[in-house]
Amino acid sequence: MSNGYSEKGTGWIGFAAIMLGFAGTLDVLDGIVALSKSSFYVANAHYVFSDLRTWAWISIIIGALSIFAAFGIVSGAQWARWYGIVIAAISAIGAMGWIQHYPWWSIAIFTIDILIIYALSVYGGKTGPASA
User: Which of 67, 96, 109, 120 has the most other CB atoms within 10 Å of its CB?
Assistant: First the structure.
């Protein structure tokens, strides 16, 4: 990969970027569905924090930030590595907010976020001195 990431982890970095973009898109869509048609989700679910509309906005914001992180990782920016780790961690916590509605989906998203954090923390470093 010519973007400065370690050659050994190019598959993991690609995985992280694609999954951040994909998860971000799904988060935005989930948030829009929750805002527009709340009957789509399980009725009478109890939340630890606020209500369905609040979680919808949180999901939209996390999704937009995830998409931004994916573009940064693809461009090879080192700030995007750390930003992606933070956003994946926030997304993992946010996935647990949807566990009342879709428990298996939330656990799957949580697992993918953990794999993204692994990929960016282990294989996201520079290979050496930058060559002009």
Answer: 120
